[in-house]
Amino acid sequence: MSDVKKILIVDDEKINIMALAQFLKPKYDIIIATDGASALEAAAKHLPDIILLDIIMPDMNGYEVLIKLKDSSNTMAIPIIFLTGLNNAEDEEKGLSLGAVDYITKPFNQTIVKARIGTHLKMADYIKTIEKLCMLDALTGLPNRRGFDIRVEAEWGRAFREKKSLGLIMMDLDNFKKYNDTYGHPQGDVLLQTIAEILNNTLQRASDVAVRWGGEEFCVLLPDTDIKGTYNIAEQIRINVMKTNIQISNEKGTTVTISLGAHSKIPGTNDLIADYISEVDQLLYTAKKNGKNMTCTLSG
Fold first, then answer.
1. Three-state SS string across 71-104, please?
2. One of 131, 216, 251, 279 is an active-site residue; which one?
3. CA–CA dist 48, 4 (Å, integer)
4. Distance CA 33, CA 282 (A)
5. Predicted model pTM
6. Known catalytic membership, residue 251
């Protein structure tokens, strides 16, 4: 895999794109877009490391493009530098308040542009490293509770704005304490790693995320997924767990089961994330209470 960073340049003036590309191309891979729609398409397709974005463009201005990029879980973390002819403080404040990392006015100085790009690329790499360490569960490699909190807040906000369903599954391994007592804690760790692998293999979309909630509890966040879809995925997870042979040292192996609570909703004005999580957690409790190895939803 190439280590060369990718820069998406968005400007409706081709002469500006050519000027930027000419002095950036020797060091970076350059992707170009001449309007907002193609910028969003290019960002989603290429996932550039940084975006240079003009503000004044026809049909969709730079502010609107930035908002849409920040609304997408795939592009929300890409640093965006406004490179524009607008040079008053109000425009700069607006751009930075919407989530841009920097604001450079035209005509630009090549040395300054290179330095700003270099600084923000280094900062982005540093942040990614820190976030990975802080938001990943060391045992399973899945996002941890902190990672989930950040992701669910972003997805909840997006679901509210777009009036789309957000699916959530919470699950708990059945009889995990007995499993640990029988086979030992190291083998319990192997089981947790196996469950994480099953979750990753079951989920098909890049937007879906599996999380280690804590202990033997996991959860799955499913953007733009209704209750039927959420239930179907929960059931597929349950079946996949039940069918998996867990290797026990040199022995033949064993199987385990898992209980799940599944729900989906379109967030309303008065709805709270905490209440939603509590609802799904209660569904999980009902599944455990009613015999385990089942998926419980509000509809049945």
1. HCCCCCCCCEEEEECCCCHHHHHHHHHHCCCEEE
2. 216
3. 11
4. 48
5. 0.61
6. no
